[in-house]
UniProtKB/TrEMBL annotation:
<feature type="active site">
    <location>
        <position position="259"/>
    </location>
</feature>
<dbReference type="InterPro" id="IPR029510">
    <property type="entry name" value="Ald_DH_CS_GLU"/>
</dbReference>
<dbReference type="InterPro" id="IPR011985">
    <property type="entry name" value="DH_HpaE"/>
</dbReference>
<dbReference type="Pfam" id="PF00171">
    <property type="entry name" value="Aldedh"/>
</dbReference>
<keyword id="KW-0560">Oxidoreductase</keyword>
<dbReference type="InterPro" id="IPR015590">
    <property type="entry name" value="Aldehyde_DH_dom"/>
</dbReference>
<protein>
    <submittedName>
        <fullName>5-carboxymethyl-2-hydroxymuconate semialdehyde dehydrogenase</fullName>
    </submittedName>
</protein>
<keyword id="KW-0520">NAD</keyword>
<dbReference type="InterPro" id="IPR016163">
    <property type="entry name" value="Ald_DH_C"/>
</dbReference>
<comment type="similarity">
    <text>Belongs to the aldehyde dehydrogenase family.</text>
</comment>
<dbReference type="InterPro" id="IPR016162">
    <property type="entry name" value="Ald_DH_N"/>
</dbReference>
<dbReference type="InterPro" id="IPR016161">
    <property type="entry name" value="Ald_DH/histidinol_DH"/>
</dbReference>
<dbReference type="InterPro" id="IPR016160">
    <property type="entry name" value="Ald_DH_CS_CYS"/>
</dbReference>
<feature type="domain" description="Aldehyde dehydrogenase">
    <location>
        <begin position="28"/>
        <end position="483"/>
    </location>
</feature>
Length: 497
């Protein structure tokens, strides 16, 4: 039996509220905004639209909770984090259902993101108990040691592409490090964040440690950025917003972590395992609806295999199953919002003028409504084309040929972004050479994006600032204080003696 186009999860809330000081709250002025799902594009709920007064209350709650939370031992905080992981895991079905409904992500992939969210908490519980602090001995004369202290009330601002997972990615290390915080989730996808209050309460996170203020970026997000009692901001989102937040943070000299956009190259050499490379290219750019910061959205193929590889890529793209997000067999669901859909469709039109369309480029048959796009492949894309240069953040890939290693590197580096890069070759020495020469924060050789949580994550150039992941995240949410202790005689020049 065909699935209804937009099955509503049972028990869907019609009102999404802030969570401040351990209690649900409406906005001070009662303002709300509509929240729609990307299949019907009809509002199913309203969410509280936070403003400066709400952010102020949330920051005050986080400040009040700081002394007690930051004063806990690492093991005590780790125990709480482990219970959060358990509570997330116990809700895997519900989380996947809500996330998929609200964001349009295929349910099977939303399930994977829910598991990853639990893993983030379990992992940072381990990190914080295992992490030591540095000390430096200077002969018998001096010992210096570093004390890591929680940095204060953190502001967390997250995007809509994998909402709950990206929230967990920041919540877990901030809490592990001993910070209290205010989270501003993305306004297009606030639904799954509504599960945090029950998860955190069940896990025993004290009131005020985590506060959630929903709202429009330019209002609620901006108020958080501007708040004088928030000394650090961890932001994931677009490069333009990141740049704006950096400017606003200059006066307050705020610590910033910026995970921004990407236009990551996949470099396929003729000697690669082309079947494996093809699987990886297709998954790497079309999974999560192509709304993925590390998507391999530029496929550079060595000329002898370019025509064949591009043809096979187009054939596979044609066969990717586009369908309702709630259908477990769906591989590409609905793009998050009609505004974003229109933007992606604009790029498809631009691409038609700039290059050769070899797959997709239109709404799939049988899906007359909803933000659906057939996986789209453009071939022979020139390096100055907008679809080669700009992040599309949808199921659209640009392919181009290259001759030899030097041109491969030149093309790989020919954009303003530098988040991820992927190299396919059977010559490992060449793989290492390309990895060294490509300007990106992360490189995968003979793989798509598979990341151990201990490894640093982040980009260079317009893709960001700083690294998250493992000890890097803990460092960001901590201040390091160095204590110098003289063990011998202090030999002080005797001024004025
Ligand atoms: P966005 O920049 O529009 O919004 C991100 C968040 O910032 C939202 O919560 C939004 O409300 C808030 N915001 C907007 N204006 C603000 C302001 N003036 N002050 C404070 N907050 C403000 O990005 P998006 O469209 O939600 O997300 C897509 C982008 O995120 C893409 O560019 C993608 O590559 C990037 N992204 C990067 C990573 C990474 O780790 N590098 C991961 C996922 C997504």
């Amino acid at each position: 039996m065909p699935l209804p186009s937009s099955p509503r999860p049972a028990g869907l809330p019609d009102r999404i509220r802030h969570w401040i000081g351990g209690a649900h709250a409406d906005s001070a002025g009662g303002a709300v905004f509509d929240v729609a799902d990307p299949v019907s594009n009809a509002p199913y709920a309203v969410a509280a639209a936070g403003g400066p007064a709400d952010v102020d209350r949330a920051v005050a709650a986080a400040k009040a909770a700081f002394t007690a939370w930051s004063g806990l031992g690492n093991r005590e905080r780790a125990n709480v984090l482990t219970r959060v992981a358990d509570a997330v895991e116990a809700r895997e079905d519900r989380l996947a259902e809500l996330e998929s409904f609200d964001s349009g992500l295929p349910i099977a992939q939303a399930r994977g993101q829910a598991r990853r969210a639990a893993e983030n908490f379990r992992y940072f519980a381990d990190v914080i108990v295992a992490l030591g602090e540095e000390s430096y001995r200077v002969g018998d004369q001096q010992i210096n040691y570093v004390v890591r202290t929680p940095a204060g009330v953190a502001g967390l601002i997250t995007p809509w592409n994998t909402p709950f997972m990206l929230e967990s990615w920041k919540l877990a290390p901030a809490l592990a490090a001993g910070c209290t915080l205010v989270l501003k989730p993305a306004e297009w996808t606030p639904l799954s964040a509504g599960l945090w209050p029950e998860i955190l309460t069940e896990a025993g996170v004290p009131a005020g440690v985590v506060n959630i203020v929903h709202g429009i970026g330019e209002v609620a997000g901006q108020a958080l950025v501007d708040h004088p009692d928030v000394p650090l901001l961890s932001f994931t989102g677009s490069t333009d917003t990141g740049r704006h937040i950096m400017r606003c943070s200059a006066d307050g000299l705020k610590a910033l972590s910026m995970e921004l956009g990407g236009k990551s190259p996949v470099v396929v050499f003729a000697d690669a395992d082309l079947d494996a490379a093809l699987d990886s290219v297709v998954f790497g750019v079309f999974s999560l609806n192509g709304e993925r910061c590390t998507a391999g959205s530029r496929v550079l193929v060595e000329r002898p295999v370019y025509e064949e590889f591009t043809r096979r890529l187009a054939e596979r793209a044609d066969k990717v199953r586009v369908g309702p997000p709630a259908d477990p067999s769906t591989e590409v669901g609905a793009l998050v919002h009609p505004e974003h859909y229109a933007r992606v469709m604009d790029y498809v039109d631009i691409g038609r003028r700039e290059a050769r369309l070899v797959a997709g480029g239109e709404r799939p048959g049988g899906l007359p409504a909803g933000n659906y796009l057939r996986p789209t492949v453009f071939a022979d894309v020139p390096r100055d084309a907008r679809i080669f240069q700009e992040e599309i953040f949808g199921p659209v890939v640009a392919a181009a040929p290259f001759d030899g290693e030097a041109e491969a590197v030149e093309l790989a580096n020919a954009t303003r972004y530098g988040l991820a890069a992927y190299v396919w070759t059977s010559d490992l020495r060449r793989g290492h050479r390309i990895a060294a020469a490509v300007a990106s924060g992360m490189v995968w050789i003979n793989s798509h994006n598979v990341r151990d949580l201990r490894t640093p994550f982040g980009g260079v150039k317009d893709s960001g600032l700083g690294r998250e992941g493992g000890a890097h995240s803990i460092d960001f949410f901590s201040e390091s204080k160095i204590v110098h202790v003289m063990l011998g005689e202090a030999r002080t020049p005797r001024f004025g003696a």
